[in-house]
Design brief:
Chain B: It comes from Paenirhodobacter hankyongi. Chain B: InterPro entries: DUF2849. Chain B: This is DUF2849 domain-containing protein. Chain A: InterPro entries: NIR_SIR_4Fe-4S (IPR051329), NiRdtase/SiRdtase_haem-b_fer (IPR005117), Nit/Sulf_reduc_fer-like_dom_sf (IPR036136), NO2/SO3_Rdtase_4Fe4S_dom (IPR006067), NO2/SO3_Rdtase_4Fe4S_sf (IPR045854). Chain A: Keywords: 4Fe-4S, Heme, Iron, Iron-sulfur, Metal-binding, Oxidoreductase. The complex is a heterodimer. In chain A, a hairpin with a 2-residue loop joins β18 and β19. By secondary structure, chain A is an alpha+beta fold. Chain A has four domains: 105 residues, Sulfite Reductase Hemoprotein, domain 2; 158 residues, Sulfite Reductase Hemoprotein, domain 1 (2-Layer Sandwich), CATH 3.30.413; 93 residues, Sulfite Reductase Hemoprotein, domain 2 (Alpha-Beta Complex), CATH 3.90.480.20; 143 residues, Sulfite Reductase Hemoprotein, domain 1 (2-Layer Sandwich), CATH 3.30.413.10. By secondary structure, chain B is α+β, with helices and mostly antiparallel strands. Chain B has one domain. The mean pLDDT of chain B is 94. In chain B, a hairpin with a 5-residue loop joins β2 and β3. Chain B has a five-stranded antiparallel sheet with strand order 3-2-1-4-5. Chain B is built from two helices and five strands, in the order βββαββα. The chains are: A alpha+beta, B alpha+beta. Chains A and B meet through α14 of A and α2 of B.
């Protein structure tokens, strides 16, 4: 895994010292809030509804065991004993006090972490497939390229004041697990005639104007990546709108100018700057790639694992739901659900973080990942160790066997924390999970992605949920719009709004009506909700949602 | 024609702690919504907001929030302001942690 160079170390320490001085000047009154605000945002510090919130970057969702332990230490020392993992593979602390934040930043720097560029109109944390480097189906590990992009974009002088924030995601697998087409730039590692390159998408994004990214280049040679990215962001920096915050993202730039005009401008800039990239970036990439070498996998017999599957129904249920095929047959990728029924999606207590760090260190070559679906991934575990690991997870409340099921919900913090939110998200997720477990339908319903946002900015990815829920403020009352048919996979689809919204206490019954209609209409148990929706269209589900009310009216 | 002025309180977040505070009639800051000054006159409200904006070393982002008279003092009107008097709904953190709500 990547370790900081001397340059990284010096840069992060310098930024930490600068921020300590900025906080001191704010507290002494030397800086006004207007002066301080952009400085704190550059360091990931927000002021939310009830408290400050610190957003810490977890580059491409990759964590070492010692880093996870330090996050636990921070949660216990300066926060309320837990952290919240986000759809951008970051972690947020919800309760820091301003005078403590410089100490937190120092503690992060001690384990090569920081909160730089987790806010502001800059290039944000590069996200990727949580199974990167481990998945059986990938062409190449996307993380070395993600790390190269991190180094290139961090403190990039030209890109600190973009028209708006800028998010890049990369996948090494055709089965996109990083929602790349919902990003400003999406990259997919592809192969052509034995050469590795990148398929480049631009102009995707959710928020108030959801758009699916369009292909800018079908095949970009790997060596051209940084100059090409630089050309894209430079083009956007000049062409993007600054007159209207809601029209400032690159998706609007691409939409208003057309993909062909945007491509022509990008290609022209690319041709101009390409000669100035003389291969230093490629030399750096090779050094980075060496640091992402796979661990020395230890072979282990799988008989014990297979025996446990036979005799232990709890283990079997968990393994059936939470394991993914590893590149080695005697290993598995484990997704640890942070979605225990009734708990807050994405939250982990400090003690849970330590259990995960211990498991990663003892069994998992020291590696952890955070998925954009707000779970923790242990990417390299020997199947032989899984029964013991499962037992440890059980004791820590981390063995919920629900990955990919109804209760594996993405939910933004919503109005329980966020100053921008228009309604709550978390309690809706909690009630959906507990309700469907209580009525015993979760397993029967099977694969389903519900995603909940507490405002139009769509941090909860509701547009790409099979069922999306958007919380709004309608005349001083929480109201929830339902969208149907979205998809976050390779065939990225924006869901369509079903109709009028529902009051807070009507949401769970509304979702139940949709899902009972699905159970009645599916061709067989193998047809998932989204497959049935694609076959039948929205009409029967809208009928289930509104028919009753219409009849009563 | 301007709309009829509805009662307000001045609220903000504490600079150091980040938590929610309200301005009292004496011009000090309280954590308790019921101890806030209920402002029933628009011009007075603007003056109180100016007074709050003049204390950047104590509070951040002061604004006028709708409120109404209650049995024990001013009460919030909008659900967002109700949440601000309590804290999040998923953990007993924030103001609800303390005894006074």
């Amino acid at each position: 895994m990547y370790k900081y160079s001397d340059f990284d170390e010096a840069f992060v320490r310098e930024r930490a010292a600068q921020f300590r001085g900025q906080v001191e000047r704010r507290l002494s009154g030397a800086l006004t809030e207007d002066e301080f605000r952009p400085l704190r945002l550059m360091n990931g510090l927000y002021l939310q509804l009830h408290a400050y919130m610190l957003r810490v970057a977890i580059p491409y969702g990759t964590l070492r065991a010692d880093q996870m332990r330090q996050l636990a230490h921070i949660a216990e020392t300066w926060d309320k004993g837990y952290g919240h993992f986000t759809t951008r593979q970051n972690i947020q602390f919800n309760w820091p006090k301003l005078p403590d934040v410089p100490d937190i930043i120092d503690a992060l720097a001690d384990v090569q972490m920081h909160a730089i560029q987790t806010s502001g109109n800059t290039i944000r944390n590069v996200t990727t497939d949580a199974f990167a480097g481990a998945a059986a189906d990938e062409i190449a590990d996307p993380r070395p390229v993600a790390e190269l992009i991190r180094q290139w974009s961090t403190d990039h002088a030209e890109f600190q004041f973009l028209p708006r924030k800028f998010k890049i995601a990369i996948t090494g697998s055709a089965d996109d697990r990083a929602v790349i087409r919902a990003h400003d730039v999406g990259l997919q590692i592809v192969e052509k005639d034995g050469e590795t390159g990148l398929r480049v998408f631009v102009g995707g994004g959710l928020g108030r104007t959801p758009m699916v990214g369009q292909e800018l280049r079908a095949f970009l040679p790997k060596a051209d990546l940084l100059p090409y990215l630089e050309a894209i962001v430079s083009t956007y920096n000049l062409m993007g709108r600054r007159d209207n915050k809601y029209k400032a993202r690159i998706k609007i730039t691409v939409f208003e100018n057309g993909i062909d005009a945007f491509r022509a401008a990008t290609e022209e800039e690319f041709a101009r700057i390409r000669p100035s990239f003389e291969g230093v970036d490629q030399a750096m990439l090779r050094e980075i790639e060496a640091q992402f070498a796979l661990p020395d996998f230890e072979a282990a017999p799988v008989e014990f694992y297979e025996r446990a599957l036979e005799v232990d129904p709890l283990f079997r249920a968990w393994a059936g739901q939470n394991l993914t095929a590893h590149r080695r047959a005697d290993h598995a990728i484990v997704t640890v659900s942070l979605k225990a029924h009734g708990q807050t999606p994405g939250d982990a207590s400090a003690s849970q973080m330590r259990v995960l760090a211990d498991i990663a260190e003892r069994y998992g070559y020291g590696e952890l990942r955070i998925s954009h679906e707000q779970n923790v991934v242990l990417p390299h575990l020997r199947k032989a160790d899984l029964p013991a690991i499962h037992a440890q997870l059980l004791r820590a409340g981390l063995a919920t066997a629900n990955v990919g099921l109804l209760s594996d919900i993405i939910a933004c913090p919503g109005m329980d924390y966020c100053a921008l939110a228009t309604a709550r998200s978390i309690p809706v997720a909690q009630e959906l999970a507990t309700h469907f477990r209580k009525i015993g339908l979760e397993e029967e319903i099977g694969a389903l992605k519900i995603k909940i946002s507490g405002c139009i900015n769509a941090c909860g990815h509701h547009h790409v949920g099979h069922i999306g829920i958007l919380g709004l403020d309608r005349a001083g009352v929480e109201n929830y719009q339902i969208t149907l048919g979205g998809d976050a996979g390779p065939a990225t689809t924006i869901g369509e709004r079903a109709g009028p919204g529902f009051a807070y206490d009507e949401v769970v019954p509304a979702i139940e009506r949709i899902l009972r209609a699905y159970l009645a209409l599916r061709s067989d148990r193998a047809e998932s909700f989204i497959e049935a929706f694609r076959r039948l269209g929205p009409a029967p589900f809208k009928e289930a949602l509104y028919g009753e009310a219409r009849d009563a009216a | 024609m301007s709309r009829k002025f509805t009662p307000k309180v001045v609220t903000a977040n504490d600079l150091r702690m980040g938590d929610v505070v309200y301005m009292t009639a004496a011009g000090s800051w309280t954590r308790d919504h019921a101890e806030a000054e209920l402002i029933e006159d628009e011009a007075h409200g603007e003056l109180r907001l100016l007074a709050a904006l003049g204390q950047p070393g104590i509070v951040v982002g002061p604004y006028l929030a709708e409120a109404r008279a209650g049995a024990n003092g001013p009460e919030p009107v909008h659900f967002r302001e109700v949440f601000r008097t309590r804290g999040p709904s998923n953990y007993p953190h924030g103001k609800q942690e303390a005894a006074h709500v």
